[in-house]
Amino acid sequence: MSGGALRTRAGRPIPSAVASTSPSRGGTGDEPEAAGGRRGTAPGRGEGFAPPDAVARLFTWLAGLPPRRALAAALALGLLSALALPPLHAVLVLLLAVPGLLALLGAATSWRRAGRLGLAWGFGHSLGGLYWVTEALLTDPARWWWLVPLAAPALAAVMALYAVPPALAAWFLPPGWRRLAGFAGAWTFAEMLRSVLFTGFPWNPRTHPAGTAFPDPRVR
């Protein structure tokens, strides 16, 4: 991957997942974008880190996906991120799941597509982390059997809404540290809202894997 910028299938240059170009603003958000309508970045500025070649190729592939496949990829990355939650604690998957989402967002051609990508990622993450709801219903299957196929997806659909603000923040902000700071800040704010809205839902906080990766010896 050395010797030139990564490019999407449409021939537009894209940097890494952390630093991707942003679509031009305006319009309804769903119309096709004219060639050359994306805003580029000045050489040497906002390019972020350079990932390994294999990871860079993956991000290039993600950024080049058509809209429907991009939504499917966002859903898959969200499901992958749920592996970082108990009982598996596979924290390292977040190094792919979160930058992969940023790669998809950087290639989105409208804020509406970015919002849908965040929604798909959030749905996958919440669905993968709320499997235990079905187990709780099976304690009395004769009474609650009809809720088994509905409970986890319904909860996940609501929880997915909280992934939309960080997705939109990442899309609107320029690449580099501003995008990362805005993405993290919006996600923190969304988590604060999640603790209050709809009576609050304390399960599966996004910071839970951090407690596994960096345990506090004072907590037993």
TrEMBL record:
Keyword line: Acyltransferase, Lipoprotein, Membrane, Transferase, Transmembrane, Transmembrane helix
InterPro entries in alphabetical order: Apolipo_AcylTrfase, LNT_N
Any Gene Ontology biological process: lipoprotein biosynthetic process
Positions of the Apolipoprotein N-acyltransferase N-terminal domain: 78-204
GO MF annotations, alphabetized: N-acyltransferase activity
Domain of life: Bacteria
Name by which UniProt lists this protein: Apolipoprotein N-acyltransferase
